[in-house]
Design brief:
rod-shaped; 4-stranded antiparallel sheet; 104 residues; 2 helices; alpha+beta
Length: 104
């Protein structure tokens, strides 16, 4: 890959990590009187009010867990890019010198 493609990937991975973290808002876990949203760490909590069916529900956000979730998904993305480039370099070295054996 060309260096320009890598710079686009390095910009795109954090954006995709944040979007993936926002998409985990659809996974919910019931807790004691609340529902938690987010994976792997619950970064959104919605409390239920048993007295009022149509009242807006109090919602709280844990931005520290949100950042950790986004970092988790970004690490997965950067790991995939690293393994892909490492595999590409290994194949390129074998094409240049077939007798050369490289070990990881």
């Amino acid at each position: 890959m060309k260096p320009r493609h890598f710079s686009i990937l390095y910009f795109l991975i954090p954006v995709l990590a944040v979007l993936t973290t926002l998409a985990t808002d659809f996974w919910w876990r019931p807790a004691d009187g609340t529902t938690e949203y987010g994976f792997p760490l619950p970064w959104k909590t919605v409390e239920f009010l048993p007295v009022c069916n149509m009242c807006p529900l109090p919602t709280s956000y844990n931005w520290g867990f949100f950042i950790l979730d986004a970092t988790f998904y970004a690490a997965i993305g950067y790991g995939i890019v690293f393994l892909y480039t490492r595999l590409g370099w290994k194949q390129q070295d074998q094409l240049v010198d077939p007798d050369k054996t490289t070990k990881w």
